[in-house]
Design brief:
Strand order of the largest sheet: 1-2
Mean pLDDT: 84
CATH superfamily of the largest domain: MetI-like
Number of domains: 2
Low-confidence stretches: 1-5, 274-282
CATH architecture of the largest domain: Orthogonal Bundle
CATH topology of the largest domain: MetI-like fold
Helix content: over 70%
Radius of gyration: 26 Å
Largest sheet: 2 strands, antiparallel
Number of helices: 29
Shape: globular
Distance between the termini: 59 Å
Structural class: mainly alpha
Length: 577
């Protein structure tokens, strides 16, 4: 009994420390933003709201964000659904290659992708330079502004459909399709009358997520949009860099927070409407259908290959130029003599070159481990002790989902730019620890939800039996519970690491100049003022990041461990025979 009490005391002390962490780095920063928007030295004030309304640049940024948020779901939905249909519904030749190409946005996104598009289609990009030799009077800056941002993000955001929509689509019962076909319905009529209505919940969720992505976009508008197409997030960054304009940044971030609340409300309403997926007892997997009309079949193949080419060309350009010398990168003309390993040698030998990459690996690793260990204990506590306090604690954990990351980052900057009692009068803004804290906070909600769900897979009778046999609670947890939840733990470690390895949106607000993360360096090197060495380093950074992301994707999503094991066993059996 004494040991049990000690175990419980240790858990409660941990929960108390975690509650302080939530108050200090979640509640207080977001409250500071709200306070700075509505309160001044004289009390309640709407002066800052009026300042935003009177600022033409801010109003234009809000309008641009809404324009992108409204149009992005339309274009991405069309492209995303067609890609899923090309892979899972229609009989398209070269499906394996198409699958690889359509998966590229999962490993090549964010600031890496924007940088790749800039070098491919920008005013001095590889494609643009080639086109200028054929059409010398064309505008070199043709790939800029709203159209360029929409084009980039429409293909980049298809990852939402490749993960969620495709998974739901493959789980549809094919018997319903066969029944409709038996009644004389055409394949296209079946899609619109049988398949798509079944997927309505996931379709609406993807649409809402895309609206949110367009509203809060940072890297693409900042690097591709330019001054002609500024959106809210880059404006918040610009205003934050000027101490006198931080209140304007606070108002804009608060506006994003309100939109996030509206979106969460819509998602919850959508979830309460129920699930419309077919639930027959014996499901039949979908069989791909052949398009009998030759013109439609040709058009479908051309469209499928065009989408694959658009996804692949920036990655191929980045990969090729990462192995070329400075002269080739400067001229954008590749020859057989252009290839070299000097860019990769620079990463291995130059301290200034490899430091940003090492910094990002360190921060992503530390944040992943800390948040997973923290959520393992907190999720266990909430799972075991279901009361009003645990309910409130769970609600606090989900606050980072309610307010956007930019608002939270700005709150950290404004709150801890001077000594604050809740952090023992320390100044955290500009320190090495504040970016790590931000990473941990934004990773908490998703990690908590997955780990909490994994605890429901533990048979309580096993723990009860161990308790009767006299096993300590900690011993029972390590020997019984941990092996069951370990796959989820490892998956969350990998996913969290992958998500923060090339982070830019949070990092640009919070990084310390002596420890720049690779996402910030890629953005800095992509500017027109950067030299050829910076562009070359961007290529190498992108290739290394893609390699790591691909390995994580292979092991987490594609069951890489068992694939390698089966491959090894197959070769072993072949050699023995």
């Amino acid at each position: 009994m004494i040991r049990l009490k000690r175990f419980n005391l240790g858990m409660f002390l941990f929960v108390a420390a975690f509650l302080w962490f939530i108050l200090a780095f979640v509640v207080v920063p977001n409250f500071s933003i709200i306070k700075s928007v509505f309160f001044s030295a004289d009390g309640v004030s709407t002066e800052r709201l009026q300042a935003i309304v009177s600022s033409q640049r801010a109003v234009r940024g809000i309008k641009n964000s809404f324009l992108l948020a409204v149009t992005l779901p339309v274009t991405t939905t069309i492209i995303g659904i067609l890609e899923v249909l090309f892979l899972e519904y229609f009989d398209i030749k070269g499906r394996k290659l198409l699958k690889v190409a359509y998966m590229i946005p999962l490993v090549f996104g964010g600031v890496m992708l924007a940088n790749g598009y800039m070098f491919t289609y920008g005013s001095r990009g590889f494609i643009t330079t080639s086109l200028l030799t054929i059409f010398p009077h064309m505008n070199p800056a043709w790939f800029r502004g709203y159209g360029a941002v929409l084009f980039l993000m429409s293909f980049a955001c298809t990852s939402t459909y490749m993960i969620f929509f495709r998974n739901a689509f493959t789980n549809i019962d094919y018997q319903t399709i066969e029944a409709a076909r038996g009644l004389g319905s055409s394949d296209f009529k079946i899609l619109f009358k049988v398949v798509f209505p079944t997927l309505k919940p996931i379709f609406l969720t993807c649409t809402i997520l895309l609206f949110q992505t367009g509203l809060m976009a940072m890297a693409a508008p900042l690097m591709i949009g330019g001054r002609d197409f500024e959106t809210i997030s880059p404006l918040i960054l610009t205003f934050t860099q000027r101490p006198s304009s931080r209140t304007l940044a606070a108002v804009l971030s608060f506006f994003l927070g309100l939109m996030q609340l509206v979106l969460l409300y819509i998602i919850q309403r959508n979830e309460r409407k129920g699930n419309f997926l077919s639930i027959s007892k014996v499901k039949t997997t979908i069989k791909r259908v052949h398009i009998h009309s030759k013109p439609l079949n040709l058009l479908s193949h051309l469209t499928a290959y065009l989408f694959a080419f658009i996804n692949a060309i920036p990655l191929i350009v980045v990969l090729l130029f990462s192995f070329t010398d400075y002269q080739t990168i400067s001229s954008r003309h590749i020859t057989l003599k252009s290839f070299s390993l000097e860019n990769y040698q620079l990463i291995l030998t130059s301290d200034t070159a490899y430091r940003p990459f090492v910094t990002s690996v360190f921060y992503a690793t530390a944040a992943s481990i800390i948040v997973v260990l923290m959520m393992m204990v907190i999720a266990r506590f909430i799972f075991k002790y279901r009361n009003r306090f645990s309910t409130i604690l769970e609600m606090l954990i989900h606050i980072p989902w309610v307010f956007p990351g930019l608002m939270f980052a700005l709150g950290l900057v404004m709150t801890y730019s001077h000594p604050h009692a809740i952090v023992f009068n320390n100044v955290l803004t500009g320190s090495l620890v504040i970016m790590l804290i931000a990473y941990v906070v934004v990773l908490m909600p998703k990690t908590f939800r997955f780990l909490k769900a994994s605890y429901y897979g533990v048979d309580q009778s096993l723990e009860d039996a161990a308790k009767i046999l006299g096993a300590k609670p900690l011993y029972s947890y390590i020997k019984i519970v941990l092996p069951i939840i370990l796959p989820t733990v490892l998956a969350m470690l990998a996913i969290n690491f992958n998500g923060k390895l090339s982070d830019y949106d949070l990092s640009v607000f919070l990084y310390n100049p002596i420890a720049k993360p690779v996402g910030v360096v890629i953005r800095s090197n992509s500017s027109s003022e950067s030299g050829i060495e910076g562009i070359a380093l961007n290529f190498v950074y992108s290739v290394l990041l893609m390699a790591i992301n691909s390995l994580v994707f292979f092991f987490v999503y594609a069951d890489g461990k068992n694939t390698i094991k089966n491959l090894f066993n197959g070769r072993k059996t072949k050699n023995e025979s």
